[in-house]
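Attaching the record inline, Q. Sequence:
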Amino acid sequence: MAYDYDPELAPWAPRLAPVDYTDPVAARAAVRAIAGRRPAYRPLGAIEVFDTSAPGPDGAPPVPLRVYRPAARGTRPGPGLLYLHWGGFVCGDLDAMHPTCLRLADRTGAVVVAADYRLAPEHPFPAGLEDAYAALRWTAENAARLGVDRNRLGIGGESAGGGLAAAVALLARDRGGPPLRLQCLMWPELDDRLDTVSARAFTDTPKWNRACAQASWGYYLGSRHRPGADGVPPYAAPARAADLSGLPPAYVCACEYDPGRDEAITYAHRLIQAGVRTEIGYWPGTFHASVSVADAAVSRKMLADQTDALVRGLGGTPQRTPHADTEGRKRT
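Structure, as predicted:
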């Protein structure tokens, strides 16, 4: 299929082959290599970074965390953001999200907490979700020490991390957990059924295609559930949730040539219909996580819009410079 990519993205599209998720060991090695090639982010101000952990769910090990705290905040309480990494529920770690979390803390003024949740297939649903929820509870319980205003706490993530963020928002609502001010879902993985137009059509797109999504959902749901079958819990696939009322306001970002495009847009529309204040960022000419081509103007705009949504949604303090919201000055 021919795709009308953004002119600055088009030369890179053939080079950005999707990770082969059918082999989790090889996929993790590939993701580590990709993360290792990402350019370092240069913060405008000092960011205190430290590793810690949250108590795990019952019977599970502690959840490794990495905290990013803007030094300019001083002792004043401000917004906090739990941010969950990408990787198809199979790959990714704290290092993979390091430049992103530095950028988010630097640009929004929020204390950012990254969680290294357990991965499938060794730990299928609900392990990763429960780890993410444990990280949210830890962030809320330690808000005063972190300098976080508990009334200005958000959650976000990219791809599988975006799907987990949506699921954590559902879980927090239903369990009476920490109140969330915003959910920021960047090209989220939300629907195991893969029956939308985009999920069926995009079999050869860069970075993420239908085969990636099929493998991802198969591993994440494990032996207890079959992707697309009846009975898959909405906490695993938030698109299956019948009731989206009472959820926190949302920013949902979707890319045109992404198998997950339609599920993200549909979820955003359903949030709106349920009375949830929702903003949609839709980007023609882009593909899944195309912000990795950091020099492209559309990438800078996507990240600037995310920053703006987080600042407005959480009441942060934006930082502005001539080199605006990119994660580096080199393409990856």
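The chain has one domain: 13-314. Residues 321-332 have pLDDT under 50 and may be disordered.

More tomorrow.
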